[in-house]
Amino acid sequence: MVKFRTRLVLALISLVVLVLAALGIMLGQMFKGYYLSIFDERLEKEADMLAEMISREGGLNTFNTDLAKEWSDKLNVRVSIADSSGDLLFDSGVFNGAMLSTHQEIVKQLPKVENSAAYKQSLLSKVDELYHWRSITNSDGEEDGLVILSTKVEALDAIYEEIWIILLFSLGLSFVLIILTGSRITRRYTKPIESATKVAIELAKGNYRARTYEAPSDEVGVLNTSINILARNLQEMMQAQEIHQNRLSTLIENIESGLLLIDDRGFVVMVNRSFKQLFHLEGQRLIKKRYHQVIPHKEAMEVVEEVFMKEEHVRRQLILPVGIERKHFEVSGAPIIGTNDEWKGILVVFHDITSLKRLEQMRKDFVANVSHELKTPITSIKGFTETLLDGAMEDKEALKMFLDIILKESERMQTLVMDLLELSKIEQKGISLNVSEVAVDQLIKEVVLVLQSRFEEKQLGLTVDLQDDLFIKGDASRLKQVFVNLLTNATLYTQRGGNVSVRAFGQEDQVVVEVKDNGIGISSEELPRIFERFYRVDKARSRNSGGTGLGLAIVKHIIEAHKGEITVESKVNEGTTFTVYLHKHMEKE
């Protein structure tokens, strides 16, 4: 694209050329006309003077040709003398016969011409000389002849050429001076304008850091100053908008609830990361799709459709399948209305309340389980106490049996209460560990000795495979509680004559302990719940054995306090394997 300065200079050059050409033509014609009029006037005066001198000296009878030649040389013109009939008596020009005859013919016609100027104009296009003539009178006052002054047209052309050369030189010099001056003036005024134009283009592209010069103090300087102020204001506005946008984007992306923004045509225009994570849609392109292509559940789509139809806030609690799980969601849909009651779209929020529902269910189960666990021993104690008060105390054997049952139920209640207090303390304040160096192999041997009688009572086979010198940093008493609980559960849920194995070995920076049995096993549906409070796989068997259903919950908390991990694998009627991973150095975790 041609620059503004170039276009302005070209326009200026064109204008100057036109003006100077018109001025040159006008001046040339003026100078030509002026010179011609002066020349004609001179010839007329000289013709008058010669005619008057000849007439005063007596006419053609006393005419001296030598004097006429002298006049021709001094006046630098051709002098001709003719009689009244037009015949030449004298001619100062030197021509061949053809040219002289032409001159004679013109001279013969001159007496017949009344208007000398009209004749001159008619002859300019036919002959190469200009003629001026005057009548000569004799001493009696009668017309005696003519005196003719003529000059070559070529002499006038040479003078005209000189006039045009002078004009062209003057106009060319003026043209150069005007162009140089105009270029400096246009550069002075167009440079700030070009700079302002470049800055305006950069601002249109979004580059709000662009600035222009503010040097001139005239209108152009005011324009550049205004553009710079505009650029600074736009930059500040853009920075503020970017900060606001970043804050909003960060808030939307990191909010735990899934957000979905749908426009008035049903296309998704915004979706946050939580929504994709909730419904396992990572890596999929969801923007500019219809909402029914993005929302994978019919119940949630019905909420959106209801908002579209009613144009009011809608809230529903839904249970939606996500993968292999069924999760609880609180789905809220709200219409977005513009300032002029213009329908903009819908905002849909998916809030995962599965954990709240699970906690609510756990609270209900906890209350029910505690009530159920306390009801049996309290009923037993109350019933046997009433029996004793009714007279059974007199029977020594019955008294001893009843008191043993009351003691057993009291101990069961005490164990339950202690486990509840322990679990409550762990969940509220965490576990306070007395960290020291613990030999895991020696600790397991001590636990096996403590539980040896249980294995012998149920005739269970016990296999112990312990690698030597398995040292970790941990709380020995808490870890002992873990292994006691795991081995006790193995004895409880393994049939008489079954087998239990304990294996411990080192693995990089960890110590791995496996407790395996071939008992009743655990179904895949129950596996995720075995670490819940009061959850029992075989409720009748564990309750009869004195279990409270809190052991594995306490075990999990103890392992997590040691920065470790516990996993379980099981198949029904094949057995269960608990694996504990403990780090050798807790400081590194």
Polypeptide structure, described:
This protein has 589 residues and is of the alpha+beta class. The chain has helices spanning 4-56, 65-75, 97-109, 116-124, 153-205, 219-254, 273-278, 291-294, 298-310, 354-389, 396-429, 440-450, 452-457, 476-492, 539-544, 551-561, and strands at residues 78-83, 88-91, 129-137, 143-152, 258-263, 268-271, 314-322, 325-337, 343-352, 436-439, 461-466, 471-474, 499-507, 510-517, 565-571, 575-583. It has a five-stranded antiparallel sheet with strand order 6-5-9-8-7, sandwiched between helices. The protein has a five-stranded mixed sheet with strand order 11-13-14-16-15, covered by helices on one side. Strand 15 (565-571) and strand 16 form a beta hairpin. The longest helix is centred in the first third of the chain and has 53 residues, at 4-56. It is rod-shaped, with a radius of gyration of 64 Å. The two termini are 67 Å apart.
Question: In terms of structural class, how would the helical and strand content be classed?
Answer: alpha+beta
Helical content class: 40-55%
Shape assignment: rod-shaped
| Structure annotation, total helices | 16
The tally of beta strands, per DSSP, is 16
**What amount of the residues lies in strands?**
15-25%
Secondary-structure blueprint:
Layout: H1 4-56, H2 65-75, E1 78-83, E2 88-91, H3 97-109, H4 116-124, E3 129-137, E4 143-152, H5 153-205, H6 219-254, E5 258-263, E6 268-271, H7 273-278, H8 291-294, H9 298-310, E7 314-322, E8 325-337, E9 343-352, H10 354-389, H11 396-429, E10 436-439, H12 440-450, H13 452-457, E11 461-466, E12 471-474, H14 476-492, E13 499-507, E14 510-517, H15 539-544, H16 551-561, E15 565-571, E16 575-583
Parallel strand pairs: 11-13
Antiparallel strand pairs: 1-2, 1-4, 3-4, 5-6, 5-9, 7-8, 8-9, 10-12, 13-14, 14-16, 15-16
Helix pairs in contact: 1-5, 5-6, 10-11, 11-16, 12-14, 14-16
